[in-house]
Amino acid sequence: MTEADCVTCGAAVALPDDAEVGEIVDCGGCGTELEVIGVDPAELAEAPDLAEDWGE
Amino acid sequence: MDVGLLYSRIRPDEKLLLSELRERGHEVHKVDVREATFGLDAPPEPLDDCDVVLDRCMATSRSKYASRFMAHYDVPVVNSPETARVCADKVETTLALSQAGIPTPETTVAFTRDSALEAIEAFGYPCVLKPVVGSWGRLMAKIESRSAAEAVLEHKETLGHYEHSVFYVQQFVEKPGRDLRVLTVDGEPVAAMSRSSDHWLTNAATGAETDALAIDDEVERLAREASAAVGGGLLGVDLMELDSGGYTVHEVNHTVEFKALNAAVDVDVAAKVVDWLEANVASQTASMGVEA
Fold it and tell me: What is the pTM of this model?
């Protein structure tokens, strides 16, 4: 399992084996929504806020 | 085949598609539309070599323009910009369904607070006020009194983007605690579920309970017709059951999410979608006289 640091609280966040760039994961430490911006090496950024026109 | 994927967020739905495509040996080219630019002459690399591009943009505004650019470059795109245009805007969807003679909730559009209030009073209470663009049940208002109507209209006009001054007023449909979602590929139903909640909103995104639904002839017919009315493609058609019998189609979604549906039914939804994509690309290649 790969891990990367939460950009908000610094906690180690476990990524799934099939993690994809663009996927969202939650930090178990502080609850921040994080976007996977790299998988090799794993890297996280704070996820964008919900926008009004998001949906399906 | 080479498949482009336009995205800004990889949801579980996109992961299901990516996994299915890769397992079948297809080459997937992910393009983050937040980083790409779209000029007049050629698509962002590597989309020019793709057999088909999937528009899975979560932002409606990006989806509309990105799919339009793909069509401009003559790159096959799912869904088509016409389908995106119609489905992205509730007014356009309602007009398309009505034009096709498909039962859809009574709707009135007004452009000022006063005329919207008049429309609301004409419907009586409760009725529903919806944003013309939006999803997941957000910013939907069930209006139960004149004072609530006045407050919501003032808030929308004062605080909202200009689109919130296009007041989309709709009858409140008394549904039996659930609505229905049918996923279709060019009108062909793939799977369906009911979404139940004690709340008047029954979107899966708001936590509604989902169950597999057997598709009856009427639901199938309406799903096919609704798909054709908005231009076809990969769609989520939403229906409500009427007290009087029959159904009404209230929404058609063009970047349909199917994680909840996939969990509720025995059908492998992503596999069915990829089957359809493969068939489409094969047929397009054959019609161009090129070896598949």
Answer: 0.94
**Closest chain A CA to residue B60:** A53
Residue B233 touches chain A, beta carbons under 8 Å: no
Q: What are the φ and ψ backbone dihedral angles of B116, each rounded to 5 degrees? A: -65, -40
A55 touches chain B (CB under 8 A): yes
Distance, in Å, from the CA atom of B183 to the CA atom of B273, rounded to the nearest integer, reads 10
DSSP-derived 3-state class of residue B253: strand
- State whether A56 and B135 contact (CB < 8 Å): yes
Instruction: Please give the CATH topology (third level) of the domain spanning B2-87.
Output: Rossmann fold (3.40.50)
Global ipTM: 0.91
A29 touches B108 (CB < 8 A)? no
Contact A56 B136 (CB under 8 A): yes
pLDDT digit string, tens, across residues B124-180: 999 999 999 999 999 999 999 999 999 999 999 998 889 999 999 999 999 999 999
**Which architecture, in CATH terms, is B106-171?**
2-Layer Sandwich (3.30)
Q: Read off the tokens for B215.
A: 């598709």
Torsion B210-B215-B216-B219 (CA) sign? positive
Smallest Cβ distance to A20: which of B10, B136, B253?
B10
